[in-house]
Amino acid sequence: MVQKNNAGRTVLITRFSAVGDIAMTLPLLYSLCRKYPEHCFAFVSRERFGQFFINKPENLEFIGVDPDRYKGPVGLFRLYRELKKRVAPDCVADLHDVLRTKLLRTYFRLFGGAVCAHIIKGRKEKKALTRQNNKCRAQLTSTFERYRDVFTRLGMPFEPEFHSLFGNGKGDISDFCSFIPPKGDDKWVGIAPFARHNGKIYPLERMERVIEILSKHEGVKIFCFGNGPKEEETVNRWCTKYPNTISFIGRTKFDGELRFISHLDVMVSMDSANMHMASLVGTPAVSIWGATSPLAGFLGWNQKREDCIELDLECRPCSIFGNKPCIHGDYRCMKIEPEHVAERILKKLRK
Predict the structure, then answer these.
(1) Confidence (pLDDT) at 128
(2) Over the stretch 321-336, which tens digit does the pLDDT of each residue have?
(3) Closest Cα partner for 33 from 169, 160, 149?
(4) 233, 224 in Cβ contact below 8 A?
(5) What percent of the chain shows pLDDT beyond 70?
(6) Using CA atoms, how far apart are residues 119 and 96, in angstroms rounded to an integer?
(7) Do residues 263 and 183 make contact, with C-beta atoms less than 8 angstroms apart?
(8) Domains in the chain: ranges and CATH
(9) What is the tens place of the pLDDT at every residue in 90-132?
(10) Which helix (DSSP H) or strand (DSSP E) does residue 79 occupy?
(11) I want to staple 235 with a disulfide (CB 3.0 to 4.6 A). Which of 101, 119, 224, 351 is the partner?
(12) Is 304 exposed, middle or buried (0-12, 13-18, 19+ CB in 10 A)?
């Protein structure tokens, strides 16, 4: 555990999901910890997300827990007691603001005497952005700013300064040399074609056409990312059909993927966790947006709006998370020509 400095405060930070949202906390957390070295910070989340915390500041501790072991008010009170004993926070920063974290911070406020602040998600303006009629298409506050605001209200203002988990360098990928050829002068393109919700998935037959086009370019190698047997089956089929296409599925865990992504020249992804993972290691991302929109404030850290591919349709955005069924039934927001996507990727490589 981080050793508490008598001159500083101890801050407990909570965020239990999801992958992309956890990744978005790191540029702020690392900047915050370096701004306030006299304070101690403890980030509580699911155990597997600890892999993201590469080269973390010395005054930042990751605490992995299984939230399913602490169900209901009684279970969460038990978690409160365990965390209070381990961390004894002066402040609680709730970056999630769901029922579980609301109750947890309430316990710390009532019984632990902690000062608490939580993220303001902007639900009203997000609803206005995604409603079916009379949409209010304004750029909403980014999630990064919403996270930073929590700490500002706790008396810790700061300016974010973050480039990569690896500083100005790259991650070590020597353990992947058995299936990844030396890079040399090649351009490496990562493609993450999958997402949790249909409203975020570029049709796989169109993505396959993108891979076909890229594979014909000399000096371009394509690495496909995904998770699970079904996605692996799709990617393996592509790797068999198209030269210079390699599957990265099942090769490593989050930390290994981050190390490898740091060597890519560009990551091609949906509005998904892979965009945020690329952002954590300073890799530019060409992102494809369907039912969702960068207007909602979820564009990756230091990514450029000009690298977002999207159609200007009256019906979009219709969802913040891409989980709503298409009102037209055809996800026309994803009918983006593969040739256009491929050209945007090649343009990025030429830069």
Answers:
(1) 97
(2) 999 999 999 999 999 9
(3) 160
(4) no
(5) 98
(6) 7
(7) yes
(8) 10-153 (3.40.50.2000), 174-350 (3.40.50.2000)
(9) 999 999 999 999 999 999 999 999 999 999 999 999 999 999 9
(10) helix 72-86
(11) 224
(12) middle
To which residue do tokens 């978005």 refer?
24
40-46 and 60-65 beta bridge pairing: parallel
Bridge-based pairing of strands 10-14 and 91-94 is parallel
Rounded Cα–Cα distance for residues 194 and 207 (Å): 10
Strand partners, 246: 223
Name the amino acid, one letter, at 75.
G
The position carrying tokens 């969460």 is: 76
Question: What Rg value do the Cα atoms of the chain yield, rounded?
Answer: 21
CA distance 243 to 245: 5
How far is residue 232's CA from residue 247's CA, in Å, rounded to a whole number?
8
pLDDT score for 243: 95
Q: Give the CA-trace dihedral at 282, 286, 291, 292, to 10 degrees.
A: 30
Q: Which residue has the tokens 């999801």?
A: 18
Rounded to 5 degrees, φ, ψ at 155 are 85, 25
DSSP annotation string for 88-131: --SEEEESS-SHHHHHHHHHHHHHS--EEEE----HHHHHHHH-
- The string of pLDDT tens digits covering residues 46-98 is 999 999 999 999 999 999 999 999 999 999 999 999 999 999 999 999 999 99
Scan for tokens 């830069």, then name that residue: 351
Calpha distance 249→227 (Å, rounded): 6
pLDDT of residue 298: 97
Write out the DSSP string of 157-176.
--------TTTTS----GGG
- Residue length, the chain? 351
Under DSSP, is residue 247 helix (H, G, I), strand (E, B) or coil?
Answer: strand
282 DSSP 8-state letter: T
Rounded CA-CA distance 316/296 in Å is: 11
* pLDDT tens digits, one per residue of 5-27: 556 999 999 999 999 999 999 99
* Residues linked to residue 93 through DSSP beta bridges, in sequence order: 13, 117
